[in-house]
Amino acid sequence: MTFKAPDSLAEQIAHHLAERIIRGEMKPGERIQEQKVTQALDVSRGSVREALLILERRHLIAILPRRGAHVTELTAHKVKSLCTLMSEMYILLANAVATGWKVQADLAPFVQIQQRLTASYERQDIHAFVDDSFNVMRATYSFANNPYLQETVENLQPAMSRAYFLALEQRKASMSEYLELFERLLAAVIARDFPLIREVLTAYGQRSCDLVISALTDA
């Protein structure tokens, strides 16, 4: 595998390892050995160390003294904590769009993503579906104009992707539920109905939490 700009080498290595963790190819508790990663990807050990620090910041691995780096465990408590926090941040972002959009063209990115989500559901492409679920979030950043919120959401996104992927892998029909929720959310944003935005996203967070915990139980 060859890594190139524009992302830093460490970011590219982190993304590669994150994808393997999100897809479940690297299991909870599995050790990540710097030397093996260095040899497998033909990169420097320093870049791998930096990549592991990025993954630790994104809650996909833990680095422990004398034990090295391990893939973090997914527990019910972690899932509930993550879903609760992400729901509140999604509400902030959705409220920013509802407040800030002025013409229909401002909403075009969300409509396009909705169309891609529908296409991913129809072909049962879980990975593309999860990716576009978070592209919805990224399309809101310009409305929120809050670098601290954006950084926090981006750092938590891989952990949330991992949880969603697990749930959808085991229960593919749940993609239709997410589509229905997104349709309701988009309608609430267009109507600038802030109570409904909170209602929809709170339900979304709770449903996501329930699905992931159920998937954990079945795993």
TrEMBL record:
Keywords noted in UniProt: DNA-binding, Transcription, Transcription regulation
InterPro entries: GntR_C (IPR011711), TF_FadR/GntR_C (IPR008920), Tscrpt_reg_HTH_GntR (IPR000524), WH-like_DNA-bd_sf (IPR036388), WH_DNA-bd_sf (IPR036390)
Transmembrane segments: none
Annotated ranges, domain HTH gntR-type: 7-74
GO molecular function: DNA binding; DNA-binding transcription factor activity
Protein's UniProt keywords contain DNA-binding: yes
Protein name: GntR family transcriptional regulator
